[in-house]
Write a structure and sequence with these properties.
307 residues; mainly alpha; 2 domains; two-stranded antiparallel sheet; 73% helix; 1% strand; globular; phosphate transport; transmembrane helix
Length: 307
């Protein structure tokens, strides 16, 4: 019968084995949690689609799960989500990219040490604060210029855009900082200016990271709940693409806001209206999953490897 090894090497080996299994358990727990969430969505969504046609759900242009006549067309919610995403992209992507260029190429080490953490503080602000700020301050300020509704897509888009700026700037700045200085020095040696080096050398070299930051930030914007629930309103409507002003000036209802309304409403727990919450959630999950998958494919396709 073998005796336990209580030597220093034996204890170190046992400790390493214990930590390995602990880390594996944590990884499995994360995977199982994800699988459980997806399974829950699928089970209740399948029950919903047993009473409502998937074609009607995906192609319907009217969303009214609780009012007669009942309708479960998800297109108004998808259009509302896309409008918020588009508006936030117009705010966050250029500002975030320009901020990343400044932090990576222009700011001194000391200034970067203060500015980057200060910028990332925005990511720690509760989203409900953003929502009330949009409703109480941004909408009245914009209303002096534009004929806004109390609840509107413009204010919500601006605040969602501000919320995801740290994600765009931080990931993009990390990608730019990973570009070797030899590329910069070679460009300077050819007589290029700092602006030319930044925009024509560094940004293309870090393109995979920049695009990934864009897609991940937009995925975050698509899944945002509290800002749109507070500031955008709860009016499910098909957005008229021929009326750019009307797209943002009136109230809309993204998918996340509709889920909040259903989940907090006075509805039957096993009815079609309640189970539509899971169908909308599954649709939202598929959209964000596809965007994250595209982000990974883009990053792997255009990733530059430097030696």
């Amino acid at each position: 019968m073998s005796q336990p090894d209580f030597s220093h090497d034996g204890i170190r080996t046992a400790r390493g084995t214990a930590f390995r299994y602990l880390f594996m358990l944590c990884a499995l727990l994360s995977i199982l949690t994800t699988v459980a969430i997806v399974a829950t969505l699928l089970i209740d969504a399948i029950d919903f689609f047993a009473t409502v046609s998937p074609i009607e759900f995906l192609t319907g242009t009217r969303w009214s799960p609780t009012n007669d006549p009942v309708a479960f067309g998800v297109l108004p919610l998808i259009s509302g989500t896309l409008i918020i995403t588009l508006g936030s992209a117009l705010v966050a992507l250029p500002i975030g990219l320009l901020t990343a260029i400044y932090l990576s190429e222009y700011a001194s080490e000391r200034r970067r040490a203060y500015l980057k953490p200060a910028l990332e503080v925005l990511a720690g602000v509760p989203t409900v604060v953003y929502g009330y700020f949009a409703l109480v301050y941004v909408t009245p300020a914009l209303d002096t210029i534009l004929p806004l509704s109390t609840f509107n897509a413009l204010s919500a888009s601006i605040m969602v855009g501000i919320m995801i700026i740290p994600m765009v700037s931080s990931i993009s700045e990390d990608a730019m900082s990973a570009v070797p200085d030899s590329l910069r020095q070679a460009s300077y040696g050819l007589g290029a200016t700092k602006f030319t080096v930044s925009t024509s050398v560094v940004v293309p070299a870090a393109l995979s990271g920049i695009i990934s930051s864009f897609i991940l930030a937009l995925s975050r914007a698509i899944g945002e709940t509290m800002i749109v629930a507070i500031a955008a309103g709860q009016t499910p409507r098909m957005v008229d693409l021929t009326d750019p002003a009307g797209m943002f000036l009136d109230s809309i209802q993204p998918m996340t806001s509709a889920m909040v309304q259903i989940g907090t409403g006075d509805i039957v727990g096993q009815g079609a209206a309640y189970k539509s919450l899971f169908a909308v959630g599954l649709t939202l999950f598929v959209i964000t999953f596809v965007m994250n998958l595209v982000s990974e494919l883009v990053a792997s396709r255009y990733r530059e490897v430097y030696r």
